[in-house]
Specification:
Blueprint: E1 3-7, E2 13-17, E3 20-24, H1 27-30, H2 32-52, H3 62-71
Antiparallel strand pairs: 1-2, 2-3
The structure holds zinc ion.
Amino acid sequence: MGIVVREYECGCRITSDKNYPSIKYCPKHKSAPDLCEALEGLLDWYDDLTLNNPDLESPIFWNPAIKALRKAGRKPKSHLM
Ligand SMILES: [Zn+2]
C-alpha cells in the first residue's frame, strides 16, 4: 500500500512504504510491453504479407507505429523501411 508520493495525470503513482519507493502503473502504462509486442507482431505480419504482394503499400499506421516502437527503445525491422 504505502503513501502516495506522486500521482501523474495518466494515473501512474509513485508510492513509498517504509522509505521503499515503488511505481503503480496506470492501465495504459501497465500494458505498454504487451502493446509493443502486439504492434511488432502486426508489423511482422504485414511485412511478410508484402513480400508476397509487392503492390501493397504501407498502411497509414505504418510510420506512427515505427516511430512509437523506436520511442519505446525497440528496433523495428522491415524490408519496407
Ligand atoms: Zn501512466
